[in-house]
């Protein structure tokens, strides 16, 4: 295993509502020095939830995405609030975004999106045994909830509206987990 480099200095170079852009001075074990930049969000990360209506039916949403300037098909997701566990945040996001809570929530994996320059973590949670519930969330408009079949996953991942890598990976993991239950 490589020896981890030493971070000699971290400096915030810009701050937005959601991110700090940081400059990091790094010294490697061979003496080489580099400066890296990273996006460092506030908080304890985010959750991405795979809500299963039954063993084959996943509930997904269409939500406007500013990064692509279009509506994207994705799984329920959101920031973990202060004092919340990933499991608690997952159930809250489900209730706010799709109108369901879950009696069974299982941690699947923690993922990064682009670890070379982003320091955020997304906790993937499988939600099963759903029940109807609702609460006001922070979405600017109602989200369209749609049903898809994991048995048709190979076609679903080629849907032009489904481009988010975390969602695609989570769907494949959910299909495998449910198959092995």
UniProtKB/TrEMBL annotation:
It is an enzyme of class 3 (hydrolase). InterPro entries: NUDIX_hydrolase-like_dom_sf (IPR015797), NUDIX_hydrolase_CS (IPR020084), NUDIX_hydrolase_dom (IPR000086). Its EC number is 3.6.1.-. Its cofactor is Mg(2+). GO terms for biological process: nucleoside phosphate metabolic process; ribose phosphate metabolic process. One of its GO terms (molecular function) is ADP-sugar diphosphatase activity. Residues 39-170 form the Nudix hydrolase domain. The keyword Hydrolase applies. Coiled coil: none annotated. It comes from the Bacteria. One of its GO terms (cellular component) is cytosol. Keywords: Hydrolase. PANTHER family: ADP COMPOUNDS HYDROLASE NUDE (PTHR11839:SF12), UDP/ADP-SUGAR PYROPHOSPHATASE (PTHR11839). NCBIfam families: PRK11762.1. This is ADP-ribose diphosphatase.
